[in-house]
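Why ABC transporter ATP-binding protein? Reviewers of the renewal asked for a concrete example.
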Amino acid sequence: MTDDTPPTADAVTCTGLTYAFGGSKAVDGLDLTVTSGEVFGLLGPNGAGKTTAIRCVTTLLPVPAGMVKVFGHDVAAGRMAVRRMLGYVPQQLSADANLTGRENVALFARVFDVPRKERAPRVAEALEAVGLAEAADRMAGTYSGGMIRRLELAQALVSSPRLLILDEPTIGLDPIARTGVWEQIMAVRAASGMTVLVTTHYMDEADQYCDRVALMHQGRVRAVGTPRQLTDDLRARRGDGSSPTLEDVFRDVAGSGLDEGGDFRDVRRTRRTASRVG
Ligand SMILES: Nc1ncnc2c1ncn2[C@@H]1O[C@H](COP(=O)(O)OP(=O)(O)OP(=O)(O)O)[C@@H](O)[C@H]1O
Ligand SMILES: [Mg+2]
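Here is what the prediction returned.
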């Protein structure tokens, strides 16, 4: 691919992005900018619209209203060009239990257009990067939840993406496995300079690993900044001398709407993901 990206382009720009399922707007006028090279956390309660927005950025859903650009490329105009720049770990399981780890990653290498001659070494490299070199020729069905998540990370990394998008990469994992996934993400990012857009419900992860976060609620961004800026803002607004955490910011933004946020389908979907990987 010829890279005609303006050098100053942001990794992701959403302007007025709106997406409705039937009559209900899952994403409702979303404005969001992810700067090139940063780790950006998209946070928000169940049903806030995070996955829907991400699916629009990855070109898996169309953009019915508003505009989405990835490194300056309009996703509506050039879906393949955009896909070649992306690695994506979806919220739901994407590895095939009946293939080996190596076969799973090789499949993604083919789908994401890695040149045929480079495929075998790139697959081996991706498996090595996530610590699965030794288990590579076992069926993915025999992997633990943490290994499955790392396999999915290898699938997303095999095409050397400029933008890695992770939808709840650590859901259902034990604390050690969570740290393992993050350490691998941060190592690849340090080596390659890729941009990372991640959703998580773990505020400690967002606080520790994200350069900036956005709090999304009912389809829109309600607050954005570094974790420190957001907690400082809340402290100033409260003015009572307390030291709020990112979780307090989350509660403040999601506030009274929490009860309406998630629905049965959300819970079922989240649990299914958690039990499949956990
Ligand atoms: N395929 C679908 N059909 C109908 N409604 C949907 C569909 N997918 C999502 N929704 C609805 O859109 C809204 C946003 O869902 P979305 O999955 O984007 O939220 P989310 O922020 O990713 O939530 P979670 O934190 O639970 O993953 C919810 O009200 C959800 O019920
Ligand atoms: Mg989601």
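The chain is about 40% helix and 20% strand. This is the kind of structural detail the renewal will allow us to pursue systematically.
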